[in-house]
Amino acid sequence: MATKLRLLQGGISVLALLAGLAGCNQDQVTPEVPQPTETPAQAATNRELAAVAKALARTLGTDATARQYLKAEARKKFDGDYDVLYQPFVAAHGEFGQRVAAAVAKDSSTVLTMAEVLSRIPTLNLSVPVNIEKWDAATYAPMVIFIPAGFNERTTKRVKAYDQAGNEHWLDAKKAPNFPVVVVGPSERAKLPVAARSGNTAKSRYAEEEKGPVEEGGGGGGDISPGNTRTSGTTGTTAGTCRTDKQTEFLRSLWMADVSQYESWFLGDPEIKLQILSPAGGGGTLSTTVVEGRYTMGRKTIEDTYRCDARLHYWDKAFLGQVLAYVWIEEDYGDIADVKFTFGYPAKNGSPSGSVEVTYKIANHDDEIGKGLIFFDDCPSQGYYSVNSGYTEFRWVTENRQ
Ligand SMILES: [Ca+2]
Ligand SMILES: [Ca+2]
Question: Which ligand is in closest contact with the Cα of 369?
Answer without folding.
Answer: 1
